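@channel sequence for tomorrow's demo:
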Amino acid sequence: MLLEGLKVVEMSTWVAGPSCAAVMADWGAEVIKVESPMGDVTRTFFPNPANGQSPIYANENRGKKGVVLDTTKPEGRAALKRLLEDADVFVTNTRPGSLTKIGLDYDSLKGAFPRLIYAAVTGFGLTGPWANEGGFDITAFWARSGVARATIPTDQEPFPSRPGFGDHVTAITTVAGILAALHERHSTGKGRLVETSLLRAGSYAISWDLALQLYYGEVQTAGPRDDRPVAISGFFRTKDDRHLVIVPKNVNCFTNVMIAIDRPEVVADPRFEIPMLDMDIVREARAICDEGFARFTLEEIGERLNELDVAWGPLGTLAEHAASERAELAGCFVELEDGLGGRFRGAATPVRFPEGAPAVGRHAPALGEHTREVLEAAGLTPDEIAAIL
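structure tokens (generated this afternoon):
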């Protein structure tokens, strides 16, 4: 079912690489996570004082078998290659230069493993002088790609993206590339290199704006609120100090918003005819919206907007989302084992298979939890395993 029978070996840390492999584990693949003796750094992020477990590590590494190998030593590299002998996919976000030094780069492995799909997750790609530069989602996906500058209004102090934001986009992108390569392998019998980068994923994520920049040589991104050319775009504050956002999906939207805030007479004023091209008129219309929304609670105005088929959304909190029936029914959460006899809720992958899918929920492995089991299954002798452990 789905990816059952697929063997994935993952040697990565932080988020993008581990999350890619975790998605495949959710979908039924056997995933073997290879860590250094120090372990994945995310094991130390926000640990539970009662049991030392990190929900960050648990989220990115659920459903995997954990193996510790020191690939700086010949024995560790040899053991990794034994794991790759019957593997379908190898996922790594180790810097390309480091992999080349120890003979674990694609060019060094493809001769011995011609059917292997080799997925390289990087900050800036595999070519050029920046290939070995360390990349994180905030530096490569958020800042260098233009996503941040296009998102943050020019009259505001720049702020960082939330941790892992770009990593998860890159992870899903990598999964898609792997599945395309596996589909090709059914016909050719050959593996191939799949390359993704945080920078390229950021470029794609902002490609609405980037397309305009590339085509016209300029694009208007997130400027100050008073400079926005659409009166009902952006966020508005309600009577109960909440915020909501309106999407002007059609020419009737302005009319319906005016009806919702009890200002239908505005629609009859020719100055406010759509499209409004005079920015002074736009600002006047926005002031009417501000005054109108401020007279209703979020719940009150939300009911009115729904009745008038206006596309809107509240500026919700994570606590509200976690308790939301809407999110629950959309499949946003999954119940996971903690490896200690308990269970907890986690974030689900963004794809659901209503007609049947593998059970999700096996805990993330303790450091080296399955090392002996996995190496024995790979055919290593007791003496070989003893030299590694």
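heads up for whoever presents: The mean pLDDT is 93.
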